[in-house]
Design brief:
With 481 residues, the chain is of the alpha/beta class. It has 4 domains: 96 residues, DnaA, N-terminal domain (GMP Synthetase, Chain A, domain 3, 2-Layer Sandwich); 148 residues, Rossmann fold; 73 residues, Helicase, Ruva Protein, domain 3; 90 residues, DnaA protein, C-terminal DNA-binding domain (Chromosomal Replication Initiator Protein Dnaa, Chain: A), CATH 1.10.1750. 54% of the residues lie in helices and 9% in strands. Helix 12 crosses helix 14. Bound molecules: adenosine-5'-diphosphate and magnesium ion (MG).
Length: 481
C-alpha cells in the first residue's frame, strides 16, 4: 500500500474513536494519486456515502499534512470508488470472526444492505448510492463525535467568547443566543465546540432530538429527497423533528440557491418554535460568498462569535491536555517547543504531537527534545528565515536589560553570563546553529563554552525552573515564535 495513505491511516486512527475507525476507515484501500486526485476504494456504496459525508474533509486534511511531511504531492480532492473485491474479502473475514455489535455498524439503507454495488467504471459518487426507501437514511443518534467535549476544550483569549456562548447555549438551548454563529479558520475548534454543545444538551436532556451535520450533508440529503420524492420526510426531520440543529461549515451552501432556500425555511421553522440553531463557518456571515442576504441577516440576528488562532500559552495547554488524555509523557520543555513551532492550526498542533508519539513508539524511546526536533524538522526552516542569531541576542538583551557588547563580551558576572547562556541555548534550540558557529557569534568563544551553556539551561528547564521558563517564553514571544 502507498506509504502516504499508510501514514494517513495511522493519523486517522489516532484522531477518531476506535469504533468509528474500525467501522468506516480501516478497510479503505489506496487506489492511486493522479493530478491531485486521491482515489480511495471502499467495500460498498453505503460506506462510500458515509465516509464521503462524514470523513472526507478530515481524511483530506490529514493526508495533505502527511504529504507535506513526506514530500509527496498533496491531494486536493478525493475520488471514492466502490470495490466489490474488498467487500468479498471483508465478508470472508467476517465468516471466521464474530460480527461486531450492531451499534458499531452502519444503519443499512433499504435494499442496499451489505450488497456490493459496482457501477460502470467502478466509480460511484456519494449521493447516487442511496437506494429509494420508505424513509430517509437515518444517522446514528445525533452523530456526534465522542472525542469532542467541553471538558477537553482548552479556553484562552482566542476562543473565550465562542466557548462562553457555546456553554450558555448548551445549558439553555433556544433561549438566549439563537442562532449562535461561530466562525474562524480551519482547525481552530469550531466543530469541537458544536459537538460539545450537542453532548451537553443530551446529557441534560437525554430525550432531546439533536441533529449535527455538515452543510454538505444537508445539501446531499436535500437533493436526494427531491430526486426520490421524499421531501416531506426531509422537512419533517429538519423542521419539526429536531430540538437542536447543529450545522457545521455553512459556507458549503455558497452559490447553492435551492438548498439555501430550503435551509432558510428550515431555519425559520426552528427559530419560530424556539429550537436552538448553531451554525459554523470559516468566515464572518457577510463574507460568505454567494449567500442570500436574508440568510446572512438571520445569522447575524443572534450571537456571532469568532475563534482565532490560539496564543502560545493556550497552545501549550492544548498539547498538555491532549497528551494527558492519551497517556503521552510530555515535558514542559517539549510542549513549549512544539507550541512555538506550530502556530496557526490546532489540528496541526495535535498532529505534530501524534507524530511525535508514533515516532517515540517506533524507536522505543522517550519523547525528548531531540526527537521533537526530528519530528518537526520539516516545519523548522520557515522559522530560520524570519529569526536570526542577532534577533535572539537583541531580544535577550532587551528582556534582561543588558548591553549587546556585554552579551558578547567576556564578563563572567551572573547578571551577564546568565542571559548569555539563555541566548546561546535559544539560538541552538530554535535555529539549530552549530556550536562553533555560535561561539564565534558570541564574541569568539570556544564551542565547548556554548555546549556547556546549552546543557546547563536544558537541565534547568528539565527541572522546571520558573525563571528560565519565563525568560524563554518572553523572548519567544518578542520574536513572534
Ligand atoms: P474546525 O472545525 O474549526 O476546523 P476542529 O474543531 O475540527 O476545527 O478542531 C481541530 C482539532 O483541534 C480537533 O481535534 C479539536 O479537538 C482540536 N482543538 C481545537 N481547538 C481546541 C481547544 N481550544 N482545546 C482543545 N482542542 C482543540
Ligand atoms: Mg470543522
Amino acid at each position: 500500500m502507498n506509504d502516504l495513505w499508510e501514514s494517513t491511516l495511522l493519523r486517522l486512527q489516532k484522531t477518531i474513536s476506535p469504533e468509528a475507525f474500525e467501522s468506516w476507515i480501516a478497510d479503505i484501500e489506496f487506489g492511486g494519486l493522479i493530478d491531485g486526485q486521491l482515489t480511495l476504494r471502499v467495500p460498498n456504496s453505503f460506506q462510500l456515502e458515509w465516509v464521503h459525508n462524514n470523513y472526507e474533509s478530515l481524511v483530506l486534511d490529514l493526508c495533505r499534512e502527511e504529504a507535506r511531511y513526506t514530500n509527496h504531492t498533496a491531494p486536493d480532492a478525493i475520488l471514492w470508488t466502490v470495490d466489490a473485491d474488498l467487500q468479498a474479502r471483508a465478508t470472508a473475514a467476517r465468516s471466521v470472526e464474530p460480527a461486531p455489535p450492531p451499534s458499531q455498524r452502519p444503519p443499512l439503507v433499504g435494499s442496499h444492505q451489505g450488497r456490493p454495488a459496482t457501477p460502470p467504471g467502478g466509480i460511484q459518487v456519494a449521493r447516487q448510492s442511496f437506494a429509494p426507501s420508505s424513509s430517509l437514511p437515518q444517522p446514528p443518534v445525533a452523530d456526534l463525535n465522542p472525542m469532542y467535549s467541553f471538558d477537553n476544550f482548552v479556553v484562552g483569549p482566542s476562543n473565550q467568547l465562542a466557548h462562553a456562548a457555546s456553554v450558555a447555549v448548551a445549558s439553555s438551548p433556544g433561549t438566549r443566543y439563537n442562532p449562535l454563529f461561530i466562525y474562524g479558520g480551519v482547525g481552530l475548534g469550531k466543530t469541537h465546540l458544536v459537538n460539545a454543545i450537542g453532548h451537553t444538551v443530551l446529557a441534560n436532556n437525554p430525550g432531546a432530538s439533536i441533529l449535527y451535520l455538515s452543510a454538505e450533508r444537508f445539501t446531499n440529503e436535500f437533493i436526494w429527497s427531491l430526486q426520490n420524492h421524499r421531501i416531506a420526510q426531509f422537512r419533517e426531520r429538519y423542521r419539526s423533528g429536531c430540538d437542536v440543529l447543529l450545522m457545521d461549515d455553512i459556507q458549503f451552501l455558497a452559490g447553492r440557491e435551492q438548498t439555501q432556500e430550503e435551509f432558510f425555511h428550515t431555519f425559520n421553522a426552528l427559530h419560530h418554535a424556539n429550537k436552538q440553531i448553531v451554525v459554523t463557518s470559516d468566515v464572518y456571515p457577510q463574507q460568505i460568498p454567494e449567500m442570500e442576504e436574508r440568510l446572512i441577516s438571520r445569522f447575524q440576528s443572534g450571537m456571532v462569535a469568532d475563534v482565532q488562532a490560539p496564543e502560545v500559552d493556550t497552545r501549550v495547554a492544548i498539547l498538555q491536555t491532549k497528551a494527558a488524555g492519551e497517556g503521552i509523557q510530555l515535558s514542559q520543555e517539549v510542549a513549549h517547543f512544539l507550541a512555538q513551532v506550530v502556530k496557526s492550526n490546532v489540528r496541526e498542533l495535535e498532529g505534530t504531537l501524534t507524530r511525535l508519539a508514533v515516532l517515540a513508539e517506533l524507536r522505543n524511546r522517550p519523547i525528548d527534545m531531540e526527537l521533537a526536533r526530528e519530528a518537526t524538522r520539516t516545519v523548522m526552516p520557515q522559522m530560520d528565515q524570519v529569526t536570526s542569531v542577532e534577533d535572539i541576542q537583541r531580544a535577550v538583551c532587551e528582556y534582561f536589560g543588558v548591553r549587546m557588547a556585554d552579551l558578547k563580551g567576556k564578563k563572567r558576572t551572573r547578571s551577564v553570563s546568565h542571559p548569555r547562556m539563555i541566548a546561546m541555548y535559544l539560538c541552538r534550540e530554535r535555529l539549530g546553529t552549530s556550536y562553533p558557529d555560535l561561539g564565534s557569534r558570541f564574541g569568539g568563544k570556544d564551542h565547548t563554552t556554548v555546549l556547556s551553556a546549552y546543557k546547563k539551561i536544558g537541565r534547568l528547564l528539565e527541572e522546571n525552573d520558573d525563571k528560565v521558563l519565563d525568560a524563554i517564553t518572553a523572548v519567544d514571544r518578542k520574536l513572534g515564535l
